[in-house]
Design a protein that fits this description.
Elements: E1 4-13, E2 24-33, E3 36-42, E4 51-54, E5 59-62, E6 64-66, H1 78-85, H2 95-104, H3 107-123, E7 126-129, E8 131-132, H4 139-150, E9 156-161, H5 172-187, E10 193-198, H6 205-217, E11 221-226, H7 234-240, E12 245-248, H8 254-260, E13 266-269, H9 271-277, H10 285-290, E14 294-296, H11 310-320, H12 325-339, E15 356-359, H13 366-369, E16 376-381, E17 384-385
Parallel strand pairs: 1-4, 1-5, 6-7, 8-9, 9-10, 10-11, 11-12, 12-13, 13-14
Antiparallel strand pairs: 1-2, 2-3, 5-15, 15-16, 16-17
The protein binds N-(iminomethyl)-L-glutamic acid (NIG) and fe (iii) ion.
Length: about 400
């Protein structure tokens, strides 16, 4: 693959060495070769490359790492959203209406819809996306969803424990056995992670522990939907079990924050969900003070957060969660990578994947300063200018 030099970058957010939280370098250049970052430095010192691109003083950041999506589903729940905006409360139960639509959809329909969402995400700067199952809730459909997800990303998560399947509503213990048994057996070869929605109306702490333990024994890494609607004890469980990430964290106790500090568990915030469910936003000050690594993700799903836009999440984190723009942009790149235990994405350093986003702006801060404006003008994924989502070759 020919090398390419991206020259005259006004501000380059490396998330590594440089100024401040974003590792900023000014008047910088990046050389990409064979899908990787081969050189980073001052634009004037850039080595010759086969091709060059003039950034003309604009800002460049790493591609966003969206570590939490439910992108494989059918149907939408606009009416449910509309009712919430008139005062109805969000509950876990809405998931079942998406399950009915998803079970009725063909693989081709599910894949085409997921691709549309990922294309949309890519146009907004996302270059790595995790995808969960969780709208099948029977062995055959969960397997189909995981197969679709595995055609789109390496970051596939088995979320059979999203809610109890409707046909087993009165037999929850049987459903837990199904998830931790035959469903997991079918899922494990297709997934990297296991996740549980640990919440009122979904699974309690004891059920969650049982399912996560089974997942771990099957070789999957752990992630968790934790403390979305209540202080459920899920966050503490996730940290205790060494989950890579506990997600939502709308409600965290001081003890949860203390437990996260110094642990290997990332706290992932999904402010699109607070937006769309009219819940209070979590705040980042306590995490900052405690030195906790936190990430931002879209939580793209038809119920609680139907957005693919990481710039939207950044703007919300800045306006509503107390984050600085630099912290929010870091959380959406290097933070997401940490939540997926990845070191090859979310940063612009020699050897990293050449996933770069050119902004139609002089400063990455514009992502929050100019909310709702399509600032992503070009995306390189694995070193190639990309406009359609494809699964990475390796
Ligand atoms: O992350 N919390 C659980 N799962 C999704 C919502 C699912 C739904 O409402 O369809 C979430 O918010
Ligand atoms: Fe979610």
């Amino acid at each position: 693959m020919p090398s390419e030099a991206i020259l005259n970058i006004g501000m380059l957010a490396t998330m590594d060495e440089g100024e401040g939280v974003m590792g900023l370098r000014r008047d910088a250049a990046v050389v990409i070769e064979d899908g990787r970052v081969a050189w980073v430095g001052a634009s004037d010192d850039a080595p010759a490359a086969d091709a060059s691109f003039d950034a003309a003083g604009a800002a460049v950041i790493p591609g966003f790492v969206d570590s939490h999506t439910h992108a494989v589903f059918a149907g939408d729940r606009a009416a449910e959203f509309d009712a919430r905006m008139s005062g109805a409360r969000y509950t876990a139960g809405g998931i079942r209406s998406t399950v009915a639509a998803t079970r009725a959809a063909s693989d081709a329909e599910l894949e085409a819809h997921a691709r549309r969402l990922l294309d949309e995400a890519l146009r907004q700067g996302t270059t790595t996306a995790e995808i969960k199952s969780g709208y099948g809730l029977d062995v055959a459909t969960e397997t189909r969803l995981l197969e679709v997800a595995a055609r789109l990303t390496d970051e596939v998560t088995f979320l059979g424990a999203h809610v109890v399947a409707p046909e087993l509503a009165d037999h929850r213990a049987d459903y837990v056995d199904l998830v931790a048994g035959p469903m997991l057996d079918a899922a494990a070869p297709l997934a990297r992670w296991i996740d549980v929605f640990c919440e009122e109306g979904a699974f309690d702490v004891a059920e969650t522990r049982e399912i996560l333990e089974a997942g771990r024994a099957a070789g999957l890494g752990l992630r968790l939907h934790a403390n979305q609607l209540t202080m459920s004890g899920a966050a503490a469980l996730g940290v205790e079990m060494g989950a890579a990430s506990i997600d939502h964290c709308t409600f965290l106790s001081d003890a949860d924050v203390d437990a996260l500090a110094g642990s290997g568990t990332v706290a992932t915030f999904v402010p699109g969900a607070e937006f769309s469910t009219r819940q209070p936003y979590p705040r980042v000050e306590r995490l900052r003070d405690a030195g906790v690594t936190w990430a931002l993700a879209s939580d793209c799903n038809p119920g609680s957060s139907y957005t693919t836009s990481m710039p939207f999440c950044i703007a919300l984190a800045v306006r509503e969660m107390g984050a600085t723009p630099a912290e929010a942009i870091r959380a959406a790149t290097a933070g997401g990578a940490a939540a997926l235990r990845r070191t090859d994405v979310g940063r612009i350093t020699v050897g990293a994947r050449a996933d770069l986003v050119l902004l139609d702006a002089p400063d990455p801060v514009h992502l929050a300063y100019r909310p709702g404006v399509p600032l992503v003008s070009r995306v390189w994924r694995d070193g190639v200018t990309a406009s359609r989502w494809e699964k990475r070759a390796s």
